[in-house]
């Protein structure tokens, strides 16, 4: 797939959580962005002194790839106080354009996978690529009967990005998809949509052993905080998974 350079025009935005915005763009040249779920784009801009820089954002876009790529380009943006990229995104009005390139990355579901289960582990905006993978996971459930566990680490229920969508997907596929939010600071209130039996209190790496990683049938994806990625990577290796069964992407905040 060829890497392209293109303008993105802002269509809409909303707050996903305190300090995280969901941005929807279309390509300014009118073309669709053909990508594989799990890939990312780079946004190019300049610092105040004119120095060129860029930031990477995983694509949150959900398309039915049996039909083909659509026009929307969706990303989640974490706001960093005093950050140049934060100033860029907060300063955008509807219809404004930014400069982007891509798609990049190999953090994707592979057509040749013959595993029995996916362990998807993420923190913060590290769950963004898993949102874009939902149609492919649904197809794999239908065609191969795979099971999926999504362990999602957040500090509070307010920071559970796309949590309603993941919970709805789990409700549609109760025998094949488990959504396990792990809250490190605050649990949901009784009666709230996120007060569910699969909610855990602590960090995702604490609960990984509960799901008994199986080298004979699992492929794991790790995305988000580097410390979490490293800890889960070592735990999965200790559990017998080979390095080729563990796919990683680390998110490091840049100003």
- The side-by-side strand order for the widest beta sheet comes to 4-3-6-1-2-5
Mean pLDDT: 92
What gap, in angstroms, lies between the N and C termini? 30 Å
- Tally the structural domains: 2
Structure description:
The chain is built from five helices and twelve strands. It is α/β, with parallel strands linked by helices. The protein folds into two domains: 4-104, Beta Barrel (Elongation Factor Tu (Ef-tu), domain 3), CATH 2.40.30.10; 117-250, Rossmann fold, CATH 3.40.50. It has a six-stranded antiparallel β-sheet with strand order 4-3-6-1-2-5, with helices on one face. The protein has a six-stranded parallel β-sheet with strand order 10-9-8-7-11-12, with helices on both faces. Helix 3 (163-172) links the parallel strand 8 (147-154) and strand 9 (177-183).
